[in-house]
């Protein structure tokens, strides 16, 4: 299973095409729109999110709410597009483009964004040609794709949730997640302004975001994704590009502004003995093989163990700042300090929804690689058989 996306941040629309989705999967715009709405939220978002009302149109591959086995096409319109037709120079409405708009080029790259190197790489002296596609606006359709993957996983008894564990140095109590099911976590997170489980930490995070915004600055944080109900043996140790942990790390790092990934207790492993890290193995009639602890986050040898998968990613602070950083105008080569119109001051909560989506996709794709099937009933039966087999192994 694979997908591609297309679309510019201020263009008319964003599109994704999914190929390889099994037939007979329930796919509805309601499921997808719920996730799109969550991605637009979270304390710290900028004014663009008041303009957009992200909803999906399913334009191919689904009839009467069920996938056909053919490519699925998802489209999300950019409501802001109507303010940008001239500047973007794409004019499907057939209206005249103001020549003044064509002259309005961006020549001042932002430190920490893709502007300067993207311009050099593709030969764009108008840096808008870079920022339009490097913008995290693209994560809208990745969340739509992830919502389809989540529906597939849910029919297989696999559930997934993300929550925010850190913002601007304020850390949530991580043990809160270990005593709750994915469904319980989701309920709490959906009602929280920064999608955090720990209400005390959440209030401080909101305050930290407000302070950063007031100071014209931005802050980053950490998100955690948990996948429950995985059958053992998804992924493989036999080749580098079949390792599930490697695929999850790639997916997490592919999110705009994400700079590091941890699995299980992650970097903390550097401080501990082996006997304090590895999870002891037990067996019982009801569950089959289990681990007494889950410090390795449900992954051994590039394969799922059957324990919950736990993966975290760190997001750097947003690069567009109201408090200007020094940069150089590529036309005059003169230094300048930028002043900026609008941006998010913290998008960690929104990014947690993106993280959930991209991990869901990667897990679903790996499940389909292990239990290849053209239609849902065959896939479900294959997984049930495998679960019974691994239990008694
Ligand atoms: C949900 C989300 C929203 C974002 N919003 C902004 C924003 O408003 N302004 C900005 O400069 N960067 C924003 N970013 C981060 C940039 O897209 C990112 O830093 C840029 O693409 C450069 O990529 P890199 O940071 O991975 O090197 C956002 C990222 C995410 C995930
Ligand atoms: C549009 C979204 O996020 C955008 C991501 C983004 C960036 O540089 O990544 C810059 C901002 O775009 P604009 O300049 O149009 O306000 C954000 O609003 C979104 O998440 O839907």
What is the level-2 CATH architecture name? Answer: 4-Layer Sandwich
Strand proportion? 15-25%
Please report the number of helical segments. Answer: 14
Q: Main sheet?
A: 5 strands, antiparallel
Number of domains: 1
Word description of this protein:
With 393 residues, the protein is of the alpha+beta class. It has a single domain, classed as Chorismate synthase, AroC fold, CATH 3.60.150. It is 36% helix and 20% strand. It has 14 helices and 17 strands. The chain has helices at residues 29-40, 48-51, 85-88, 99-103, 115-122, 128-134, 139-155, 175-178, 182-190, 199-214, 244-253, 274-277, 348-370, 376-392, and strands at 2-6, 13-19, 56-60, 62-63, 66-67, 72-77, 159-167, 170-171, 221-228, 258-263, 281-284, 288-291, 299-300, 303-304, 309-315, 326-328, 335-337. It has a five-stranded antiparallel β-sheet. Strand 11 (281-284) and strand 12 form a beta hairpin. Helix 1 packs across helix 7, helix 7 (139-155) crosses helix 13 (348-370) and helix 11 (244-253) packs antiparallel against helix 13. The chain is globular. The two termini are 29 Å apart. The model has no long low-confidence stretch (mean pLDDT 94). The structure holds flavin mononucleotide (FMN) and the ligand C=C(O[C@@H]1CC(C(=O)O)=C[C@@H](OP(=O)(O)O)[C@H]1O)C(=O)O. Flavin mononucleotide binds next to helix 13. Keywords: Amino-acid biosynthesis, Aromatic amino acid biosynthesis, FAD, Flavoprotein, FMN, Lyase, NADP.
